[in-house]
Amino acid sequence: MTVALRMSNLYAPTLKEDPAEAELASHRLLLRAGMIRKTAAGIYTFLPLGWRVLNKVADIVREEMDAIGSQEMVMTVLQPAELWTESGRWDDYGPELMRLKDRHARDFCLGPTHEELITTLVDNDTRSYRELPLSLYQIQVKFRDEVRPRFGLLRGREFVMKDAYSFHVDQTSLQEHYDEMSRAYGRICERLALEYRPVVADSGQIGGKVTTEFMALAEAGEAELVYCECGWAANVEAAETRVPRSPAVSEPVALDKRPTPGLHTIAELAEAWGISEHDTVKTMAGKSPEGRLVFFCVPGDRELNPVKAGWAVSGVELLDEADFKEFGIPKGSLGPVDPPAGTLVIADASLKGDVAWGVGANEDGFHLYGAQPGRDFEVAQWADLVFAQPGDECPDCGGELLGARGIEVSQVFQLGTKYSEAMGASFTDENGDERPFVMGCYGVGVSRSLAAVIEQHNDDGGIAWPISVAPAEVAVLPLGDGEIATAAEGLYNALADRGIEVVIDDREERPGVKFNDADLIGWPFQIVVGKKGLAEGKLEVKDRATNQKTSVDLDCVVEVVVDLVHGERAKFAH
RNA sequence: CGGGAUGUGGCUCAGCUUGGUAGAGCGCUCGGUUCGGGACCGAGAGGUCGUGGGUUCAAAUCCCGCCAUCCCGACCA
Q: Does A434 lie in the same domain as A293?
């Protein structure tokens, strides 16, 4: 299809000034370039240009899904509560699940994801192993009532997502498709011109054990990563880590109970004792689902990672103020020595060799110096408990980890039988036995990816779209009427005939306005048709990515630009 | 949910401390001059000052409630 646009009738209301509400480049530029407008916090309308880009991103995702045999469909936004009570997530999902009632007071939710719906759907119509494996996907609006929507499209409440679900007879089949999906996700990032890293992650709310996140590297990213030159990379919340320890005291010392009135933080304690935070041990308290008190001991200069706490004790929750009162323990003076009866003490594995811990005495106003595991207290379990950080050892090669920030643009999960078992979704195998589906699910944040592309491709002038998702490939800017307009129209038609997506700025605007809008919107190539140049038979071609301008003969400008476009397209072809 | 900030023409903001009849720039309309990096001159249109209440002769301005938006935090024991 020939795509040609006229700025004179394109609804792209650009803003000269930065909107007060936007901080990040992607948010600011999407608003300024007239691509989106806010409807409410975290909810955005896509205007024609933004919609064009969003569709281009979606088309790339679609091509990659189709290529690995996943089939497109579309499910409903509105979902009945029964499906969610069946899986248990009506209670587990929390306030992010946007709940509502219909006129009969029946409970519904706006789908934040579609595992429940698809599992039921497929279960109803799939009986035999002969019909498996099966992979289905949709590109659809999702709703999550985020605690704090922010950064425009990066963390919205209503957003566009591609979600795929696969059903298999066994783990081997799942693994095969999971690997195909992972490769497809890598290609999607590449075609979006995103600098990215696949990272080890936690599966969180979705469930399952094996999962990989695809992170677009960006300073503005909300996720912290650690990575190693050997290729290993992980989200800090999920990164296995080995914390380097170098305690100041290496020989056992006598246990010494010291008064520490008014000291409640590690920093205060370390200062009062004249030691480093590294030589203290921080104890955090949680409770298991059965109500058992759990103490987590971590090096004083590190943070307990609640995700890992959950790995050590499934379902553990950290105590809130009310819990502290109920258990009658002093927040700010906790320690592994003589905890309340029945307390489970779990310590970070890095502390195993330390013989003189500085810890709380479980009595307000007192701490213990020189506590030694095995002598003064017992540790029930040594575990990996803290957030990884740059400087730690790589769990793969032992090298030193580096840090980065990223935007989570997509994630693949092996769900196993979590949903199929909960919801009784099964098929009949070759022996006639009923077996639960082995499932995978795979999400791409389509609107978020769009924002991530801008985070990586912008400058002071505006957006610099990679050609794969640009709202058009070439812009023709006539700086006048008469001959100039005629020449520009000729170019515009010639390019469109050659299958180039082209836009002409045929508005009655001054040159400066056209230049600035063109840069702001970010057309990859711009052809400037001006009076002087035209008199000499020359035009100017600008490459938005580099802002390089080249003078080109009028006769061959179409060829030159077609070649440039084809060259760029080739970089992002399927 | 806690903390901070903001809400005044379409956009960016001033005015609020010290109540007294609503402003600027940009944008928009009309006329003219301009025309290679967001032009200039002239003439206009456009605002229940987020919202509800209170104080007052008088409230954009002071007080209270609510709503909305943005930022920080929500696990730093």
A: no
| Mean pLDDT, chain A, whole residue set | 92
* pLDDT category of residue A205 using cuts at 50, 70 and 90: low
Looking across all nucleic acid strands, the nucleotide with the smallest C1' to CA distance from residue A152 is B70
Quote the number of domains for chain A: 3
**Are the beta carbons of A394 and A230 closer than 8 angstroms?**
yes
Distance, angstroms, CA A529 to C1' B35? 14
> What's the token pair of residue A142?
């999702």
Nucleotides of B under 7 A from a protein CB: 1, 11-13, 25-27, 34-39, 68-77
pLDDT band at A314 (very low <50, low <70, confident <90, very high): confident
Confidence band, pLDDT 50/70/90 cuts, at residue A2: low
Nearest-angstrom CA–CA distance, A83 and A56? 33
What's this model's pTM, rounded to 2 decimal places? 0.92
The per-residue pLDDT for range A271-289, each reduced to its tens digit, is 889 888 888 999 998 888 8
Question: Residue A36 CA to nucleotide B48 C1', Å?
Answer: 29
B70 nearest neighbour residue (CA to C1') = A21
Residues A236 and A275 in one domain: no
Q: Is A249 helix (H, G, I), strand (E, B) or coil?
A: coil
Name the nt closest to A517 by C-alpha to C1'.
B38
Separation between Cα atoms, residue A131 and residue A122, nearest integer Å: 11
Q: Which nucleotide is nearest to A38 (CA to C1')?
A: B69
Shortest CA to C1' contact from A333: nucleotide: B77
Please indicate, yes or no, whether residues A193 and A216 belong to a single structural domain of this protein: yes
Note whether A216 and A141 are same-domain residues: yes
CATH number at residue A493: 3.40.50.800
Q: A514-547: per-residue pLDDT in tens?
A: 999 999 999 999 999 999 999 999 999 999 999 9
Range of the domain at A542: 463-572
How far in angstroms lies nucleotide B53's C1' from the CA of residue A433? 71
Measured from Cα to the C1' atom, the residue closest to B39 is A510
Quick one: A376 and A408 in the same domain? Answer: no
Q: In angstroms, how far is B44 C1' from A535 CA?
A: 41
Strand ranges (E), A473-517:
474-478, 502-504
ipTM here: 0.92
Q: Which nucleotide is nearest to A309 (CA to C1')?
A: B75
**Residue A420: its H or E element:** helix A418-422
The secondary structure of A89-110, three-state, reads: HHHHCHHHCEEEECCCCCEEEE
Predicted local confidence at residue A315, as pLDDT:
81
